[in-house]
Amino acid sequence: MATTAFEMENTRALSDPTLRARFSLSFSAQMMLSQESVKESCAAAANALLSFSGVRYRTAWTGIYFTAGGKRIAALAFFEDSLCLLLAQSPEAASGPRYKAQDVSQLRRFEKTPALLPLKSEGALKNALKKWADLAATLDLREKDAPAAVFAPESFPGDSFESLLRRGLIRPTGKYSGEEGAFVEVLSALSAGEATIKLSEKKMLRALDEGWVERIEQALPAIDELLRRPSHFIAETEEIRPMELTRKITGRSVAHLCQHTDFISSVDGDEVTPSKMLNIIREDSILTYENKFLNTLLANLYFFVSERYRIALENGVDERISSVRFTDSFYHGQAKSLVTINIQRSEKITDAKGVQKSYFGSRLWKRVEQLNDITRAYIESDFVREMGRNYVKPPILRTNAILKNKYFRQCLDLWTYLQSYEESGCGLTVEETILQPDQKYVGGLFGAAAAQYLEFCRSSDERTEENILTSATSPTLNARLTLTVEDEADPVEAEDFTAVQPAAPRQPRDMAFAVQVALKVAAFYDARESNLRLEKDMEARLRLADEAAKARFAQLVDALRSYEAVKMIPRRTNYAFYLGKTVLARLTIKAGEVLLYIALEPGKLPKAFKVTDVSAVKRYAATPTLLRIKTDGQLVAARKLIERLEKKYELKKTEPEQTFDTAQYEPLPFEELLDRGLVRPAQKPERAQPAQPTPAREEILPIVTYGEPEGEEMTPGGWETIPAPEELTDAQATPEKQVHTADYFSPAATAPASAADRETESGEEHLLPTIQYPAAMDYSRPAQKGLDDVGGFLADSRENPEPVPPPAEKPGFLARLLRRKKDNKDNE
Fold this sequence. Notes:
By secondary structure, this protein is an alpha+beta fold.
């Protein structure tokens, strides 16, 4: 049966150590505060006891007592927060193989019924009733033919702690005063704090790794063979000795004497007498490289096995670690306190016979012991003593003797394995179980924590300078304060109009669907490249907002307009509220949120308001505090900010003339808002170009020159007939309209400006071949070239400017995509 919230609260009150210390609970009160299963067990036990003739009962403050023939034979009472059945017999007689009876004869109220049987489960209830039947048979009690049910779970209706206290079923003890009163006070503070209790049990099960044992055992025959038959060689030692100590002279000795004539003492004819001679000493030796490698391997093997044998010997027994951690953070008066109790107990695990569980009796452990004995014998052998400290340093050289000998190859493999094995060789398996602490134990922890806390407080108050061992003072630590002011985004953005569409069922990807996606992508990229932004008026924002946002907006508008002399002025993107010429607040809606900008200093507001400082933005300098309102809790915070505004400006409440009606802002389609002009593309302000000053007109006097120009070279083929003055027509004779042609042409002549300059001025690529310009077309000084007047040319240029071609439109994303595919096909 599921436990209700009412039963859980009553169970908590029943097990609260503070309440148990200050109040005395009757048996009826404890039953009413207990769960339904406890009530059913009590009713079943009481009816079973009353089913025998001659059994009477009496309900007292501490329990229900049953008598027969004027003697108490049984009782139902609470002991250590558990319902128990007490029988008038010895605990040994009431104990069974599974359920043991507890002896409570030392307690005065239970001295007549010393055998206590807790009723914590259905099995315990059946066992207790069986023991009662045996006791009734001993007392010659006869069971009734049709016993009536006297008790039922409804006999103990559930009730609250306060109600039972008023009914008198719970009484205050009133026995705490002085230090005991302080203890109860701390106990109450601990109970009201945040307490956590963790009761756990860990089993540390040991195990040996068989891998390294087996690997060493496989290499032992090869090591034994090499130890019994080590390799030998003849070692020669050269030593210079006096002639008196020289034993044998060889050819090398004579050759050495010839090279060192200072060792000759005298020469008499063919007789040479040396003073010293080279002696060659030959001895049998085992100091080969292979034997040194074997000696090094034995030393490492001995350290490897002995160390793991020691670790396995020290940690070979399975352990059980029981631990409890109690932590309580609470307030005692104005002080914030923390109490922690951490207890851990470790014990060896034993079986039913009291023998410790370990791997010491296994075959694997015997093999480890044998390996330890063998390696110790190796390190004490004659071979190791004769080799001494002659070792080799890794890496091991792969000599022919090592590679060709199968025993040395096995030793080399063992060496490689020992160098790569880094584990301890002793494994560990941890089994952790989290246990439910008993209510009595929980109360004891609270009591111990309260007692230790009181002792600590008393010791702290009595502390003097004599108790100070040492002290230190750290330098002043100034925390770095980082202020981040985020400029509010522009109130008109395209993201405000993003609508979340419901997920549509998946459809086959046909050509039409692909084209539709491509068009949308093209429009998206074109909008991004053109930096399109949308402006949204306040009416559009209200029409696009949901009903909840509109309701919060209306409540805040009415709250601000409820003060005298406060006027609301609708702006394009917000509603501004003025007190005279002072801006008190601004209200707007963005992305489903109501934004309240209010004329309060954000630095002086509590952090609980979670406001944003926007004073760095120029347009919000008068209202630097921003509160985003999206929930009812934030709406309450906004009302409190308005109340602070009322106190700051001494505003007076009044009834608003009319309330803000959101019904006039019904939702409209986005296209209609665009047609009405409530949503429109943002226009970038065009910067005015500074006017270019008009150069003053330069008056050029007309000079007409006939004949050959000075400094010009006549080239063949460049002659032209120059008409005489009398042959000119009337039109030609007019000075203002005289037309002159170049007198001479030269193929090598250059243009007034270079080709690169002409390309820069025109902006087009010069694709024509090189043109031979006439030599006389240098118009840098037009008056010397026969031009009458350039004033008409300048005036015509000013009156008829050349049309500026419009900039070429940049192709859209789809056009670029199709052109790229076409280019790829052409390349293929």
